[in-house]
Fold these 3 entries.
Entry 1:
Amino acid sequence: MFNNIHVVIANISIVLSSIMLLERAIGSVDPAFYFIGIGMVLWYLGCCLRIEKLHIPSSNGFKVLLLFLVVVFISNILNINSIVAMKYKGVYAADNMLKQSLLLFLCILISIYLFNVFNFKMKNINLLAILEKMLLISFLIMGGYSFFELVSLLGVVEAREIVNFIDSIICSRSAEGSILGYFRIRSLTYEASIFGTYCGVVFPWLFMKCLKQESNNYRHLFFVGVLIYFFILLIFSFSRTAYFTVLFEAIVLLIMYRKTYDINWFKICCFLVKSSMLLLLACFFIVEFILPQSIVADMDVLDVLFSIIDTKGESTQYLSNVARISTQVAAWNMFLDNPFFGVGYGQFAFYYQYYVPSWSWESYEVIEWATNSGNVLNGCFGIYARFFAEIGLIGALIWILFLFITLRDIFYARISHEYKICFLCSFFALILFGWNFSTIRLPYYWIFFALTWALNDKSAGEDCIE
């Protein structure tokens, strides 16, 4: 019975990992972590009662991850005097350090638990086939919710009420009011850029599902429709990182699948042209004939795209860029002052005010983050910049090495070519989004780590704690 419970929990956790509400979630915990937490408690309790065995991954990646945890501990010890003394916006630096460190430790325990489930409770199951199935189910949920978001943009009160009702159950977002005040698709995530992260994870699997179908049957037409709907949601997310990440994934997938599905370059070009035309026609129809002009006036995809290279303040996204870049510049300067072990894990927000670039004060977000005018304790935009600042050169390079080893393990895993390419693209998308997000709380991180260890660990059955 317990075997089935853990398998069900693992499957549900993959589906619910798409719901990334972060601090807006109930109890500040994303839904996937509730299910994983229940399974983890049952598993470790079973280990204590000798009902279960605790297997430790033999992957080099896991060993490097443990080394990363040790470096975090050393960084905190070396900075303990300043950590204990600091307080900012009513938050003690020591409290934040403990919370962040415990979170990291908990996430590692979660990955070990999932590794045991994937490698032993699901030993005779095609793990990536299950991942594909669960991700497709997650898109049905995310896409279903976003349908009401799209309809809400038309001014349909009933759809808006449905959105707010769902929000009131799963998060505190309903306090923000009408969806009409937020002109971006974000689905069941905290904000549109996080939805973009989900898009980067799920896109390779939707794309592969579309390619696998025969070109002249209803299933193919259905998945082409799903893919077009995906791109509509992606476009209306106005996530710059998601645009370029999905474009990169599409190019890689077409190149890698060309031989697998006997696709020549002419067919690839025809497919791209047809898909682009259908997508543009769909978006044109929505913008010109469905959306109210009051909303259309606030939507400009080209403005979002070109904001990346805007240095003169001409884009509406300019100040957002200023705020994000300022955190990365501040993180770099922190690293230069504390090159080896950083300022301490979880301490970026407490030092940011001392490293704010002078040119960034024009941003209202910077003013809120770096002064006592607001109560927001900000983080760095980018996990790599954050780690260089908080745990120094050694810790940051160890984390990068860990990601590289995980990519290598996926590449050399004995799995089918099509699944391998999808898994690689999804994980690489997470790596790319690491330039934009600094949180380790994305459940997909730890699910993918555990999957990789399970796919590659051939001797885990011999390496266990009785």
Entry 2:
Amino acid sequence: MHMNLLIENELKEEIYNLILEELTVNEKVFSTSKIVEEEIIEQAKKTKSIIFADGAGKRTFAFSKEVFGEKLKVHFNVINYNFKDRKYFNAYNEKNYLDLECKSVYNMIGKKAICICYINYASIDFKPLPKFYEDVYHELNHIFQQHNAKHTYSDSIKYSNASTNIHSQDEIKRNSAEIVYLANPYEQDSYVSSVYGFVKSKLQINDGDISKLDEFLKKTDAYGKIYRLKELFKIISDNKDLYKNEILERYGFKRWDRFDKHIRNAIHRFEKKFAMVTKKCKNDFFIYESHTWCEGPDFKSYYKIF
């Protein structure tokens, strides 16, 4: 049978993209995040600084951009803390003077999506610290997920309650909220998918030293959150009597064994997703035979479709 070349190429591309998504790195989000990162870095250089200390400046700016190759506009509100060198950054960071929390908002008003992305990041001489790349991908991935689901997943009772109580001064409420929050598939996927950008930026900074790949993976938010999820599960399981009412009543699990099973499954899912993206990083960023730096992603050469 003679194959139409156009159809054949489309099929290869679709299968390739499905493999990418299965490995938790969405091609649309990945390419969009690179564009947004470059825009933020350039805008920061052009924006007038408010000097808040010797060797440190704060820049605030905003811009809008269509994302994911669609007519979906996101409004970006950015705060950049730029430091003369790492000494100044460390001094401020250790005293918790910097607000580096990022978040995204996605709301449907009628048939129109209103998207706002808040990016707060630090840089040394305008070179962003690696966490910047994780955060941009993480928030864009949230928007992509919600846009494709056509609703705000934060409307779910469990997620909404967890988001509200995660900063509670009460330890029982705070830990209960955090474990439910980290068990949420949307949160897990965003943490895991941001690993790729973080690792790539760290390798580039370190001249492609692949011997440090495992070290970089352990420094990702995703690895830390998996550890925290397991830690919380142990704390709560060991103190069941203290947590039982809060977990069952506020988060609607009805029975403790349902909560136990839910968290065990969530931990397994999170670990599996992290293992998959780890495999992708190793495949993309170096060639096993020669152990040389690969200016990835060269994913298609490793997973030949036809």
Entry 3:
Amino acid sequence: MDQKKFEERITLDVLLTFLDKNGSVSVVNGEEPDFIINDNGTNIGVEIAKVFYNNDNFIGINANKLKTDLIKYLSNRGLYQRGIKDKSSDYGYVYQYVKSYQVLLPPFIIEELDAELRQAIVNSFDNWINAGMNSNEMFSVYDRYYPYTDVELIYMTASMPIMEGDNLAPINENHPLHKIINHKNELLHKNYKQKNPNVKKWWLCLEITTDSTISACKYSFDTNYPNSFDRVFIVDPHRLRVYEIERRNK
């Protein structure tokens, strides 16, 4: 089990313990979704998503250009391991142990990533690699069982919780959590359900990380908020806090 899957499993175990199901359900590791659990004969797909990073959950056009610049740099240095296609594989590629590079960016910088700033970040990335790749406040690297070398752009979405008067603001299209929830809903319809016809229910687990400014709170969906997951949870595995996001009453 690679580091990413190990961390996801910790988050899943915290959720299952909260639901009093840890040890009473079978768990199968995967991708798209991250896990499939069987609860009394019902297959449930569980997708784990950190609430502020990568996989195009939040990043825009300029950030994608930065990701491309970093991959080009790694390729030129002989540090990028490309995917090996395999039609017999469920995911179309051979899984192998590769490096996953993480680049942490403050949220205000995302819309300012012009060519000059992107090059400055690539130069800093180069300096970090030449210095031995020890994790710092901006760059880190870890081993991952994945089809190809990955570059993850990580940044905070906002300071949480979001208040509306004296109450927590409902999750709507203006809420900082909307982009990741919306993105996972799109994947649910385009990929997950088609690849897993035997899965009857779908859960989304939003993981709060140690360096996130987002709080694990009892949020709710706005009355008409579009969400196709059967259950959505916010999980802070480090503080052992779990909250289910439910729809507001009309």
